[in-house]
Automatic annotation (TrEMBL):
Protein name: NAD(P)/FAD-dependent oxidoreductase
Sorted UniProt keywords: FAD, Flavoprotein, Oxidoreductase
Pfam families: FMO-like (PF00743)
InterPro entries listed in its UniProt record: FAD-bind_Monooxygenase_sf (IPR051209), FAD/NAD-bd_sf (IPR036188), Flavin_mOase-like (IPR020946)
PANTHER family (UniProt xref): FAD_NAD(P)-BINDING DOMAIN-CONTAINING PROTEIN-RELATED (PTHR42877:SF4), L-ORNITHINE N(5)-MONOOXYGENASE-RELATED (PTHR42877)
Protein origin, superkingdom: Bacteria
Keyword Oxidoreductase applies: yes
Assigned protein family: Belongs to the FAD-binding monooxygenase family.
């Protein structure tokens, strides 16, 4: 057990062993703080990269940037990593940093309350005490299962895309509900395998055309021989990706026009004018989360692939019935219908010293301070917390910045006589108002339905540049915190 300079030993409970939770554990270990435990309800690490195993899964953020900056991987096989490679990378990082010895697998914590100056955490027969709680529960975690009448009467196999059943044969008639990144990736990959593939599209999406070249063995050897080059590659990929895509989303200008032109050009590759019209979105590229694919438009033009844009009415044992009364007979029905992205750490409940609860604080949706903390709940830091997914950027980069912020608060606590701090309510209100202001005029308000906003217009994602988010988290502003 390592103590800090003042002699105080912060006990830290980390919830979740995905990208964020592992990052926090590593940061604590590097700071010489060994008194932490990671609670992971599953049996292994990886978070969303463990859960999602659907065919065609790849990450549309470049691999050399979609990794921890302190643990670069010379062996990525492609510009954009296939999902299994990212899962394997996280497993390897957990081994290299000897994290498994600190992870309690198979424990789902359900409740935490503040008592006598520390958190008491309970769940799955466990009762733990901690001076700090750091959550790393992700936002693409709880499957969103649509409320379609009759869904449970379907006679074939049916599952959510993040719970793919690899035992189910895909050679018959397969239906995919959803046209987000997941639905598009599945269709692009599966087309040609099932006798009939039907994609149910409620809202057409803009699809940014992409290529995914392979890295050569030579490049891996060069990176191994000159590891500093991996840092250069990380910064380089961060720069072009953020400069092109984030600038396109944040303001009007050449990057936005280039991205829009790329999407429109790709759509023109659909030769049948009827199909093209049905695939044409009514919103601006980027209003919903941009989808990237190399092969989607090629896939939907195959004779064995149908895109159904008539709304679903109900499901019956034989398949999906659309509102025009047509029955689409299916053997397998995949729900690529996304996640409850507003759930964040829920259903876990937190109760602070004066009785403040997370449920009350989030009655109108997730909100907080500096994207990591919530008034009334001291010594609690949420990685990938309210308003922190930086749109299309690298969640590894976000996790590093937020873990650095939490570590700064943990070391400050130890050096300052164990004083527990929570953000002041007025500071959090100012912060939320700033986020709402930042949204005005953004592409995200340009007329589409997305998960990016709560009911009262608070963004669930970070509405400014990734650099501004890193700067925000660079150093906690203690004047915005109060003792509890
Ligand atoms: P999503 O973007 O939320 O898309 C869900 C899809 O399901 C939408 O097309 C939605 O239609 C449709 N849908 C939901 N309920 C429906 C219903 N009752 N009837 C018909 N259609 C329905 O989900 P996702 O594709 O799983 O992606 C979730 C997030 O994961 C994305 O935002 C992205 O950040 C991330 N992701 C990233 C990658 C990557 O490469 N980095 C890959 C996959 C996913 P509407 O649009 O009409 O609501």
């Amino acid at each position: 057990m390592t103590t800090t300079q003042s002699g105080a030993t912060p006990r830290v409970a980390i919830i979740g062993a995905g990208v964020s939770g592992l990052c926090m554990a590593i940061r604590l270990r590097e700071a010489g703080i060994e008194t932490f435990t990671v609670f992971e309800k599953s049996s292994t690490v990886g978070g969303t990269w463990r859960d999602n195993t659907y065919p065609g899964l790849f990450c549309d953020v470049p691999s050399r940037y979609f990794q921890y900056s302190f643990a670069p991987n010379p062996d990525w096989t492609r510009l954009f990593s296939p999902g299994p490679e990212i899962g394997a990378y996280l497993e390897r990082v957990a081994d290299e940093y000897r994290l498994r010895e600190r992870i309690r697998f198979g424990v789902e914590l359900r409740e935490a309350h503040w008592e006598d100056g520390r958190w008491i955490l309970t769940g799955d027969g466990v009762r733990e005490e901690a001076d700090f709680v750091v959550t790393g529960c992700g936002f693409l975690h709880r499957p969103s299962v649509p409320d379609i009448p009759g869904l449970d009467t379907f006679a074939g196999a049916s599952f959510h895309s993040s719970r793919w059943d690899h035992h189910v044969p895909l050679t018959g008639r397969v239906g995919i509900v959803g046209t987000g990144s997941t639905g598009v990736q599945i269709v692009a990959e599966l087309a040609g395998t099932p006798a009939r593939l039907v994609q149910f599209t409620r809202t057409p999406q803009w699809v940014f055309p992409t290529v995914n070249p392979r890295y050569t063995r030579l490049s891996a050897a060069v990176y191994r021989r000159f590891p500093k080059l991996m840092d250069v590659a990380y910064r380089g990929h961060q720069w072009w990706f953020e400069a092109l895509l984030m600038n396109a989303l944040l303001r009007d200008g050449i990057p936005r026009r280039l991205v829009g032109a790329g999407c429109r050009l790709a759509l023109r590759s659909v030769r049948d004018p009827g199909l093209r019209a049905r695939l044409t979105p009514r919103d601006e590229p980027g209003c919903k989360r941009l989808v990237a694919s190399a092969g989607y438009y090629r896939a939907v033009q195959r004779p064995d692939v149908d895109v159904v844009t008539t709304a679903i009415d109900h499901v019956e044992p034989r398949g999906v019935v659309t509102i025009d009364g047509v029955l689409h007979e299916l053997d397998v029905l995949v729900l690529a219908t996304g996640f409850d992205t507003h759930a964040l750490v829920r259903p876990m409940e937190f109760t602070g010293p004066a009785g403040a609860t997370l449920s009350d604080a989030w009655a109108h949706g997730p909100r907080g301070y500096d994207t990591v903390a919530v008034p009334g709940l001291p010594n609690l830091f949420m990685l990938m917390g309210p308003s922190s997914p930086v749109n299309i950027s690298s969640m590894f980069n976000v996790a590093e910045a937020q873990a650095g912020y939490a570590l700064a608060m943990i070391t400050r606590w130890a050096a300052a006589g164990r004083t527990a701090l929570a953000p002041r309510a007025d500071a959090a209100e100012r912060f939320t108002a700033g986020l709402q202001d930042a949204l005005q005029g953004s592409i995200w308000l340009s007329g589409c339905q997305s998960w990016y906003l709560t009911d009262d217009g608070t963004p669930v994602i970070w509405p400014a540049s990734p650099a501004a988010h890193r700067e925000l988290l660079d150093e906690p502003r203690l004047a915005d915190y109060e003792r509890v």
